[in-house]
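Notes from hallway chat w/ T.B., transcribed later so I don't forget. T.B. wanted the structure written out for a chain they're using in a teaching module, and asked if we could keep both sequence and structure tokens in one place. Agreed to drop them here.
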Amino acid sequence: PKIAKIAGKFAFNLAVANQNPQACPSISFRVLKNIKNCQSPEWLIKKIESAGINPISAVVDITNYVMHILNRPMHAYDLAKIGKKITIDFASSKQKFLSLKNSEHELNEKILTISDENEVLSVAGVMGSKNSSCSLETTSILLESAYFSKENVAINGRSLNILSDSRHRFERGVDPQTCLDGIELATQLILEICGGEASEIFIENHDLSPQFIDFDFNKFENLIGIKIAEDKAMEILNSLGFKTDKNFRVEVPSKRHDIFSSEDLVEEILRIYGYENIQKNILENSENNFQNFINPLHKARILLASNGLTETISWS
């Protein structure tokens, strides 16, 4: 769907304190008041059921819908159940947390949380609390859209043994630049289905500078064994959302968490250029090939590969 920017009709008046910007580099909030939470319309129910999710209520279903189409985990808190100050920080030792699944957990100092003045509202990037959850009686909500480091989310989830769609996505990489898109789309859908009015957006960003790679173009031929024109390689990278200059300094799109090196860029170019363009070359079979391999197993693998066999390594 097209994401529209919704103008806020009133100021965001909750206090927010992000005590750990390294673990939470970006976070945004928005309040929606005078809504009428209800059962979702049929089109939304069909969408989330097709993704294997049971419908709960319009507000919850919308956040799940946004998560699936934008890879943007979000959370909605019942505004009437929370305080006036929101803090993002690590938990205190043996602090208690009651999850949405109605299971109680004991937290520790390594677990990042979002809290109000009285209790933990959610384990960051993993799951919200039962005490601040939305119901069909909810009339005002606090929307949260954040970027949490995958390392902290992994620690949170594994320490508490909580599995969730949100954790699954954060651990594998979420685009930090989609926080606002998530807030705007969720707001748009909630206003359409539940009515109400939205506040201005609170957003706090820390260190979201793009990643750059000085691409060693010679690695393409060295690794793959074939040549490709520089302008063709640049055209492919640009078509995939990378930005390149004449010196092949490449800016990596924020959504690509799997790109770290020149070798990764070689793979990106090759998959579009076509694997069928790789030339088949049989390895030379001579004693010189084995001089650096002391382990007999390595010698056997090279010998077999030099005779045209392909090694398959299965799951253990």
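Follow-up for T.B.: The first helix runs from residue 42 to 50. Might be a good example for the class.
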